[in-house]
Queue: 2 jobs
Job 1
Amino acid sequence: MSNNEFVNKGATKNSGEGRTLWEEIRRRFKKNKFAVVSMYFLIFLIALAIVTIVIDIVDNSNIYNNYVIKQNLKDKLREPEFGNPSMIFGCDEFGRSILFRMIWGTRYSLFIGLIAVTVSLITGGLIGSIAGYYGGKIDNTIMRFMDILLAIPYMLLAIAIVSALGPSLINLLISIAIPKIPSYARIVRASVMSIKDLEFIEAGKSAGASDIRTIFKYILPNAMAPVIVQATLGVADAIISISALSYLGLGVQPPLPEWGAMLSAAKTYIRDAWHITVIPGLGIMFTILALNIFGDGLRDALDPKLQH
Amino acid sequence: MLIPVLIGTTLIVYCIMDLTPGDPARMILAETKTSEENIEKMRESLGLNDPLLVRYVRYITNLLKGDWGISYKNRISVLAQIKEKLPNTMLLAFSGMVVAIIIGIPIGIIAAKKQYTLFDNVSMIGALIGTSAPAFWLGLLLVITFSLKLKWLPPAGMGQGFVMKLKSLILPALTIGTGTAAIITRMTRSSMLETMRQDYIDTARAKGIKESLVTTGHMLKNALIPIVTVVGLQFGSLLGGSVMTENVFSWPGLGRFVVESIKTKDVPCVLGSVVALCILFSIVNLCVDILYAFVDPRIKSQYKTSRRKHI
């Protein structure tokens, strides 16, 4: 937490109520009931993903192979039954329980989305802070290149990259992460530029801090607020793109239970069974909804000036 | 700005497509079962043996001359194929935008006028769901409801003749427009709430102008500037979103064409479509800038005063 020391001290002085900045943010965030519910929902999803991974490790993927992957054609396209817990969402085109596939599928969207955003955040953040800190020619060159990347429609670039590298989990991650770099670079650059001329940076420099130390220790921790919000909303975007690419057959490949890949398989059976199309989509929608509400709540909590 | 963006995008896409495994010469001659020697000859005639940059520069010069290359797959001119498909994509994007504006602006206005009522809450929740639902899934849901259950509208493709074309356009336009409609609703609402609190609205009311006229003539007119910005920005994402929507509905547009071309590694087609989409995007942005002058007389008067100064 040493990085936040400066932020904390500054805030305590300003608010004058003896609360640190993070306590203040938590208090403001808790006021927004929807955002809190969304946060718990997201924590639940992440827990579900981790628990299923642990289960797979402990019992040697027994449940995974028998209930998520193994085909059982006599239950093909079975309609949802509300009395039977494992059949509450019905079965897919190979007679596999959609409930199990949904639960085991949480890991793909969530973790690829999170990792992809982290990767593009770190790369974009580095590029943006270099451009913002040094300015001038370096800034111009980097940002013009970023503008060009931004001019290509996001989905188009992602599709082109993933088709060049071939469909696999890692390539999907790369193809989602690269097109997002310029937007993070822009945000971080704007943040850095608004901070780098403040007095405390000058003070740090005059005390002999190197450029790298100034950027990482003084500038970035103070430039983080808009970036965190953008990253939360970015995860939502990434999850939509992952499912979209999987839907096109370029992302996670069947029989892996990714939600978008499930939709892609469902399209063939759209005339026979509605539930295999509706349910995975609802899963995606609620996840995105939770991320959006959480992101909005976070933005309001971090920057109360924005609230009208 | 258009020229560097075009050079940059084509260079990036060219390099990416070059990394893709698969040999175009072999793909062209795949069906003929020809010898290795012929494949080598083909490669030579297509200039595939030259270094990457040489090929790229040759491509760009040809592009500027109006020669967009020939499809590797069916030997049809890329320009001809794009000319055939571009109007369909534009039709889809524009109808999506029309749908979004027709839904978004009235709901946004009413929500702002009735802030904190049931209508406001319901429409804001609706807008949140609209931005959260993936477009391709929404499209599938619409197909299930309106094509398969109710049998009102065709599930895929583009119909022939005006009526059939319009019928087959409705579902894709709704699909592509919903996300944008949600964003426009939110923007309209917040922009209206902003202008509502201005003093000139009270002045207008005090003059005895009818409330409906105050809303349309005074509030909406002033609230329109940020809305126009959002509409312009959203056009880009609509063009990008056409990729998914066209695939769901088998709509014969550029988005579907580019995905198919990428899958078959048809480099000239991919590059041509990307260039066409980027040009379209830039033109739309230009149009939005011009539209500002109409919406905001202050911008127009800036130009006028500066001209007067010159005289």
Job 2
Amino acid sequence: MGEIILEVQNLSKHFGGLTALNNVTFAVKKGEIFGIIGPNGSGKTTLINCISGFVRPDEGRIYFKGRDITGLPPHKIANYGLARTFQIVRPYYSLPAYKNLIIPLFSPRARKMGGWRGGGKYGDRDAVAVDILEELGFERDSRVPYKLASSLPAGYQKRLELARCLALRPELIMCDEIFAGLSMSEVATLVPLIEKLKMEGLTLIMIEHRLKELFKLADRVMVLHFGEKIMEGEPYEVIEDERVKKAYIGEEVF
Amino acid sequence: MELLRKERVDRGIKVRTEGIYAISGWQEMLYLLMPRLLLIVGLLALPLILGPFPYWKRVINMMCAYAILSLSFDFLANYVGLANLGSALFTGIGGYLSAIFSLKLGLPVFLAIPLATLMGAVLSTLLILPTLPLRGVYFAIVTLMLPLLFCRIIEALNILGGTNGISGVPGFEKAFVEEYTVILVLLGFLFSLRRLVNEDFGLVLRGIKDNDQAVRASGINVTWMKAIAVFVAALLGSFVGSYMVHLYMWAGLSLFALDFSVIPIASVVIGGGGTLVGGVIGSFILVPLSEALRAFGTLRIAIYCIILTVFIVFKSEGIMIYLQRKYHQFERWVKV
């Protein structure tokens, strides 16, 4: 702990006249869960899009493990070990669940790293894919990993999204609203999985609207409001902050 | 009154053989091999069967040529998600290159064709490359435009023989070489493409079709993968072009004709997209049909259109998908 893995400096992004991100600076330490919250339209997803290379920032720099990754194409950033999930879950519907993982396993990074969790030879991608899925609660015995991705329930599809990231064997995962649209029981199965990933040394950035779950998981939380960072701190500090309450509930104008 | 309901039952062999490989006897092996054998043996025997009809024997060549173009279209459209409206670009470039290779460099036919196929594919891929990083309709527009562009350039600058084309290209020595070249190449392309789309590489291409953003986030260079896919498709198209040049012993502007772009699309629609074999079957129906309709003169196109429309409205899934379903399932009436 303590070592900085991702550093974002003075990041700004404008879409025409709209300022999506304004001078955002923060750093994520290795091995922590870093939460990002903020009302709708506050620039959370734009921030992730900038970091993962899908959107080119107007100003500012992004460093991952000391390497400047600003403006690199998404596939290069992913190959450095920085994975992301998407807010709107869209698995490869026409493929079975385990075949969905073949695609990240085909990437240069996964091929170079070999195996899964260091063990096993890399000859059989299918077997590795099923192993990863099993770890995320796709019961091999009930043949869930072999089902078509389009036929899986929402909870499984979200975990498939996470599995797709894990197959890259990343060092940092950015989860874009991974709890959104899940039932209470589905969230309850996902929370221990995320805790387990953290225990294994992975760093996570989580954008979330389900604050209750996030505050339980996160080590530190950053609050965005209209593209600006209004505060950063431990969960209990953030809950009690007046500015955060105002941003979420609104201010009395009259 | 007794109520009956139609029930569809899967024979189960297809399910069992997908991924888990549990074939229990020679009947099941035969069941799986039969359709393939039927196609291979049928195709190889076709020139022999049509021996007494020299006119129809010539049609086989065009049938197979269009079948290869359909394969190329089906591969790009249904496995990579790129709607290629200009297979004529591939045939044109491959054809002219082959004519140049055999006339200017004096290469024999069986060296000119592979060389033109390869060079044509490289050249076509380079021309289409600028559209590959973009999403949406740009690929379709540019591919539709490029053959027309080449046509006009050749016409306006009067290069490569201008509107007269290049004549005197050496042909095939014997008729059976002509026929079996294209038949064997078609079978080769068909089965290797089928293998390719089920390899991990093919899965990545199918992933690009479903959700290219996720493929990008998975650390794969989507533009590069698309470029390889276009190269493979162009390989098929360029072969057809260079083959036709040696078949007709002439290279001209008609190599860039819209027919080469449109008939493969119609074949895939009729045969069933995403099956690869579908396009082959589609062109085996459409090309002879268009020959048979020659008797109607100009009305031919009208009749052709009506047949196509009827197919799209009443059997939009395509012949191949329909046949596959009938083959793998059987129906019976059961009491409700």
